[in-house]
Write a structure and sequence with these properties.
The complex is a heterodimer of chains A (371) and B (98). With 371 residues, chain A is mainly beta. Chain A is built from no helices and 30 strands. The chains are: A mainly beta (371), B alpha+beta (98).
Chain lengths: 371, 98
């Protein structure tokens, strides 16, 4: 029987939630790496038992862990992330030049074709690649050194590269997003990059439709439509149908279009999900009601999904990498909260249940659908 | 033999329970002790000091003989009682509460 493995990164360790294809009974193992911030765990699409994990604290820096048995055992691998050449500077909060300094890995993106190849998005914003199972890392420095790099400036959460999407149609095409520089695309495997932010409007920057400087929170894509992307920006939900050459707003009837997480249905490329958050100054659901919103039309028309979710006195947040979908026939959705709950739906979001309730604050959720 | 006490998270990382005992040749200093630690346990590279500049990470402290040696020159010889193994060299994760 098929099964599901949910990889949960939290502020105080990692947890793995397992169920069979029915998705009714869940087994929780962990904490792995207790006490460490686990920003992200993700398995190889080629070999699901190969899982990479980003383990970090402000005390002891960055560790990368690798599992070859589906998370039963782990081994630390390479943690040397050295910027290519003389890194130069970006803008600091006060507008002065600030040297690029590695802080942590926010996101790990295993290759679609090779279990030993993995990309890492880091803070201060840069993209690294390993082709030896994360033993060694090399920067794809064309991103950081393209024209606008020296003008990038961190947001309140740090200048992090948090989203990496490799096109399944053309592995030379990679999309990334940086807070708060915006979205970028390469069409040559990471050698050269260009900003793809046309159509974004952000009130928090001096030039509202500038080429860079937008606080993109997350981007998602359905593999069958690799030129269509959906974006949750600081404010606004956006879509593009030309690989980021231009974006249009699809916030439509959302009660608030601020948020972090966004994902797309496994089998319906025009069905998308967001978790609206009240505002940039109040990071919790509107009116204390935790609601996922679903659009079956690729945006603009949204419906609230509330069954099984707390509808009063709920003041948690759902962070950018904390939502994921499984590939089972009736698509399952999963998201984690800063209150330590992991909610799951086995019916495309129609109803929800908490499959973990009292974990540390959830930073990331990734789902593996197992044969 | 130099005795080193690691903080709990680093003990877990290198899978030791008690103290670490190290042979350190030449001058026994913060630098030579951490060099020897990193040679024994390569996974510690970057966890105690910056791998490039070799500067102590901000939330790490070095204690020995009831003294905070963190701000000493890393090349300064450690106290004789550490060199002789009578006293351990402590790698400390700075306290944080809340």
């Amino acid at each position: 029987m098929s099964g599901v493995r949910v990889l949960v990164g939290t502020r105080k360790g990692a947890f793995i939630l397992r169920s069979d294809g029915l998705r009714k009974d869940w087994n929780i193992s962990g904490p792995f790496f207790g006490g460490w911030e686990m920003y992200h765990l993700k398995g190889s699409p080629v070999n699901p038992n190969r899982i990479y994990a980003s383990q970090t604290t402000s005390w002891f820096g960055q560790i990368i862990q690798r599992s070859n048995d589906g998370g039963e055992t782990w081994e630390p691998v390479g943690n040397q992330f050295n910027y290519d050449g003389v890194p130069g500077t970006h803008q600091w909060y006060d507008g002065t030049p600030h040297p690029w300094e590695f802080a942590r890995v926010w996101h790990l993106e295993p290759s679609l074709t090779d279990p030993d190849t993995v990309l890492a998005g880091v803070e201060d914003a840069a993209l690294f690649q390993s082709t030896d199972g994360a033993a060694t890392w090399n920067e794809l420095s064309g991103l950081r050194t393209q024209d606008s790099g020296s003008s990038w400036q961190p947001g309140a959460g740090g200048m992090c590269l948090h989203t990496i999407i490799v096109s399944p149609k053309d592995p030379q095409r990679i999309y990334i997003a940086i807070s708060s520089a915006g979205a970028f695309r390469t069409d040559d495997g990471g050698v050269t990059w260009r900003p793809i932010n046309k159509g974004l409007h952000s009130e928090g920057i001096p030039d509202e439709d500038a080429e860079v400087g937008h606080c993109v929170h997350h981007i998602t894509m359905h593999p069958s439509k690799p030129d269509t992307l959906f974006m949750q920006k600081h404010w606004d939900v956006m879509r593009t149908d030309n690989a980021g050459d231009s974006w249009v707003e699809v916030s439509g009837n959302l009660p608030t279009d601020f948020g972090f997480a966004i994902d797309v249905h496994a089998h319906e490329p025009e069905t998308i999900y967001v978790v609206p958050i009240k505002s940039d100054s109040e990071h919790y659901p509107l009116d204390g009601q935790l609601r996922v919103y679903r659009s079956r039309s690729g945006g603009n028309e949204w419906e609230p999904l509330t069954k099984g979710l707390p509808q009063s006195n709920c003041y948690v947040d759902v962070l950018r990498d904390a939502m994921s979908v499984d590939m089972l026939d009736r698509c399952g959705l999963y998201f984690g909260t800063t209150g330590g709950q992991v909610y799951a739906s086995s019916d495309e979001g129609d109803s929800w249940e908490a499959i973990a309730r009292d974990l540390p604050a959830v930073l990331s959720v990734e789902v593996q659908t197992l044969a | 033999m130099i005795r080193v006490v690691l903080p709990a998270h680093l003990k877990t990382l290198v899978q030791v329970h008690g103290e670490v005992e190290l042979d350190v040749s030449g001058v026994v200093s913060q630098r030579s002790v951490v060099d020897a630690l990193e040679r024994r346990y390569p996974v510690l590279l970057g966890t105690i000091r910056d791998p490039t500049t070799r500067k102590r990470r901000p939330f790490i402290r070095f204690f020995a003989c009831e003294e905070d040696l963190s701000h000493d020159d890393p090349e300064t010889p450690l106290p004789e009682s550490v060199v002789s193994g009578k006293e351990p060299f402590f790698v400390i994760g700075a306290m944080a509460g809340g």
